Amino acid sequence: MKRLYKILISACVALVLAVQVSWLTSCNDDMAAENYYTFTGEMMSDYLNNREDFSLFRRIVERSGNMSLLAARGTSTFFPATNAGVEAYLAEAGYASVEDIPVKYCDTLVKACFIENKPLYTYNMEPVQQESNALSLPIIIVTSDTLVDGSGVPLSVINSRARIINSMKNDSVDNGVIHPVDRVLVPNTTIGSTFLQQRCADFTIYYEALRRTNLVKALEEFRDEDYEVWKNDYPQFRSGIKSGGVFNEADIGKAGYDYMARRPDHLDAGFTVFVVPDKVLYEKYPEYFSASNSLDENVEGLFELAKTKYDDNLSAEIFGLDDIDPRTGLTNKEACWNLDSLESPYNPLHLFMSYHVLDRLFESTNVMVNAYGVNYYTPKNSTADRTDYFDLANPTEWVSTLLDFTLLKIEKVYYAVDQNVGHSGDFYLNHCTGVEASDNPSGEYRKGAHVTQPDNNFSINCAYYYLDDVIAYDADTRDNVMNTRIRMDMSTVWPELTNNHIRLAGDMRQEYSAALDNTEETENYYIPSGYLKHTDVSENTIFFVQRPKLPWWNVGGDEFNFLGTSYDITFRLPALPPNQTYEVRMGYAGMLDRGIAQIYLGVDDKTPDPVGIPLDLRYQATDPAVGGIFKDDNTTDLNENEWEENGQTMKNNGYYRGPTSLYTYGGNVSNLASPIVTGTAASQSWMCYNRYTYRRKLCDVTPEPGRHNTLRIRSVWVAGNSGCFMIDYIEFVPHTICGVGGLGENGK
């Protein structure tokens, strides 16, 4: 479809809002209970009218015409600035008074500090809490023991800019909660190409490379205005969705959960750019870069470095470098590997820089990886018989980049898994611990590139982060980092889900609630046909995305459901290193009221071919068709040999147990900060011991260089309003690590 590029808000101040993420052990506030709830009988509008210290912000609201918004019924959150905070903003922006602020921008300032229909109290916040304001822009709140007020109480800082005033916070009014702040929240509505130009003082070489390759042009994409029209062909809400959840045959057709789902509000694009600062390049690659060089010379050095990363035969196959251009009779490499062809997608610098840009917006490292339910601590006080099966693993996501046919590994690395890494709990790109500490059989350690988040690092459609080394989809990355089990939560397969706040929507600590999940307050979504790139959804298919709920038996709490009397969906599989064969496995929760579907595997636009017999999701893993032996959801009586033997039986039937490093909270979400250190196996639902959470081999795939594989899921049986197809995650396991004793065989 045709895309139009447009910035939502024309009047903007070039101030950027960001956070430096830190995983801390405490986010509670040491405040007296009387400060939590005051219930004055006021609305938010009354709050401003009744307090002289908010007279200036009240005037901003009046000029914006939003006083009725603050007087409306609901349960929202509001961050108004005190008079001192408004005066500081006026001086900062060069206004003599509030009357000089353009009326349209007054509207922007009010909506920037307003979270609709969600009451947010600081004592319920995580150390890093990310929400969306009424402009659909991020509000990121960091609470740190390292920053306290005069009484020693931790301060909460919004977007690295405004501090919530401890003596005034958590003030409940009849339509929500108010947290006064010491500075006006100013959103950055600058488009990505301009934003990076404004912020590039520390990374002039990388920015110039982005400019000369014309990749900055991609960063101008934001909102698809066509969707604003055709979305009206679909209802804003769909009700009566039943995604399954029946354990007993007698309950089929009458039990289960009812959901309402909302249509996505917009179809926005977003980008994350990883840059290496100039000083790092000078220190790490002095043969290519120098502070005494001209900018032209340093860009040429980056070009020469890029050539070393992609000058191999398989890279040439993947990216079409040896293909002949019929116009010139030259290969793409012969024609484009020069400094005059930097805008060509075959140019090495273009390849190199494209891999540094993600096709999704991560405003903070907090949302890069869904880390819940991953065992990165040593288990203690376990009551299970097989504690050795609680494998340690780093929370990891695999995401696509602007370089076609590639994946990038984003990993939150902990000392418990890798004692050699320099920063425990920090993020690394393309990290590889080697054979002794992980399921990667290469045996070659790769630290990867360490990610740090600068202040003021995101705008309306673009964020940037610093790296301590370059990254590339070169032979070393493919052979070492990628030669492992690639497990992807389905929410990361489609970048549109991240860019439009569908992935990780809502508070995952909130269990299923009919008042939330089956009303128009819902944070569940259905995806209209045509919304996702490289995905075909039949018009009678309900593509249902459940918001994350930690008690659910799913990786990270979320899941995907395809419903309808004849659902049919085809989507592009993530790119894999070619020239080897992978097992494609699907993780799900088998329930009696699920459906049956035929799976098809295809290549590009060719008609996909059916693989195997239809997949029946109604089984538990104890069903004879699967062959698993389970005592209960948390433990097993099997000894080591019996465990392995039963695993082989399941494999012969095409199944695997659930992962041994993953768990769900089983209804107990009281210990989210360090669930394994103080928890026990019985207090969690370990996926390896849960008869409902297991994996099915779908097919084998051998990717061809420069081509994409597709997967089709077509219904062959449903029962009335039941019978959905459920996917939690998908795995790609190289055959090189399968087989007896292979690291791909274990359930980690």
User: Uncertain spans, ≥5 residues at pLDDT below 50?
Assistant: 1-39, 380-387, 436-441, 667-683
What is the 3D form? globular
Query: Can you tell me the CATH topology of the domain at 241-264 and 483-737?
Result: Jelly Rolls
Distance between the termini: 41 Å
Q: In percent, how helical is the residue content?
A: 10-25%
Task: Decide which structural class fits the backbone.
Answer: alpha+beta
Beta-strand content estimate: 15-25%
- The total strand number stands at 36
How is this structure best described in words?
The protein is an alpha+beta fold and 748 residues long. Helix content is 19%, strand content 21%. The strands form nine sheets. A seven-stranded mixed beta sheet has the order 14-11-19-18-17-16-15, covered by helices on one side. Helix 2 crosses helix 5 (103-112), helix 7 (204-212) packs across helix 10 and helix 10 (295-310) packs across helix 13 (348-354). The two termini are 41 Å apart. Residues 1-39, 380-387, 436-441 and 667-683 have low confidence and may be disordered.
Which structural traits does this protein have?
748 residues, alpha+beta, FAS1 domain, Jelly Rolls, 7-stranded mixed beta sheet, 6-stranded antiparallel beta sheet, 18 helices, globular, disordered N terminus
Give the topology:
Blueprint: H1 44-49, H2 55-64, H3 67-71, E1 76-78, H4 83-93, H5 103-112, E2 114-115, E3 128-132, E4 138-148, E5 154-158, E6 162-163, E7 171-173, E8 176-178, H6 192-199, H7 204-212, H8 225-230, E9 237-242, E10 258-262, E11 271-275, H9 278-284, H10 295-310, H11 313-319, E12 324-325, E13 330-331, H12 332-336, H13 348-354, E14 357-358, E15 396-399, E16 408-413, E17 426-429, E18 449-452, E19 462-467, H14 475-481, E20 486-489, H15 495-499, H16 514-517, E21 525-526, E22 535-537, E23 542-546, E24 559-563, E25 568-572, E26 582-589, E27 596-603, E28 609-610, E29 615-616, H17 640-652, E30 655-657, E31 663-664, H18 675-678, E32 685-686, E33 693-701, E34 709-717, E35 725-727, E36 729-734
Helix pairs in contact: 2-5, 7-10, 10-13
